[in-house]
Structure formats: structure tokens, C-alpha cells
Amino acid sequence: MRLGEVAHVRSGDKGDVLNMSMIPLDPADFDWLRETVTVERVRELYGPVVEGEVRRYELGGIPAFNFVLTGTLEGGVSSSLGIDPHGKAWGALLLELDVGERPVAG
To answer: Is the pTM higher than 0.85?
Structure first.
């Protein structure tokens, strides 16, 4: 199953920092996604695009996560010669992450 089947992602960029919020479509999936969409998996997904750190924060008050990837986007939109390195496009990649099967509620 793709992450995009069970979550929504909002993303953006500031300089060489990519910021993505991941919000489960069903709040009941929050704990499963906490275990499944780890910093290590996000780093692996983005590979050499991320030269800095990958951090994940849980957002207080709502069942959502915020990922902050530093040293990305080839130095930032205004300094990059790459085609469309904007955070919005990179957020779409996170939605393609294979999250396996949703656990059976029990």
C-alpha cells in the first residue's frame, strides 16, 4: 500500500530546507504510521537529495507528523540549476512510500 492511500502530505521549502507534514486520513492510523514512516525510511527514500539531517516531529494536539530535511534542494530553489526542485514536488514522492498492509483493528 502507498502512503498516499492512507495519508495526506503538505510540503514546502525555505532555502535548502524541505518541510513536509504527514497527516493520516484516519486518526486511528497514527500509531501504525509512527512505526512505519521513520526517519530512516524517509532518509532512504530521498537518498542523496538530503545532504543534511532528517528530523521527525509529532504535532501536539493533532495526529500528524512534520518532517524537516536539511541540506536539500541543491541549495534551494533560487540557487539551483535543477528542474523543479521545489518542496511541493518532493512531497509527492513521500506519498509513494510503501507502507505495507494496514494492521487489522483488534
So the answer is: no
Rounded to whole angstroms, how far apart are CA atoms 33 and 79?
A: 34
DSSP secondary structure letters along 46-71: HGGG--S-EEEEEPTTSS-EEEEE-S
Distance CA 43, CA 105 (A): 29
Contact between residue 37 and residue 97 where contact means Cβ atoms under 8 Å apart? yes
Domain ranges of the chain: 3-94
**What is the distance between the alpha carbons of residues 24 and 36, in angstroms, rounded to a whole number?**
12
Could you tell me the three cell numbers for 1? 500500500
**C-alpha cell read off for 18:** 524541505
In 3-state terms, what secondary structure has residue 3? helix
Q: Which of 15, 20, 17, 18 is nearest to 76 (CA)?
A: 15
Dump pLDDT digits (tens) for 58-81: 998 999 999 999 988 766 666 655
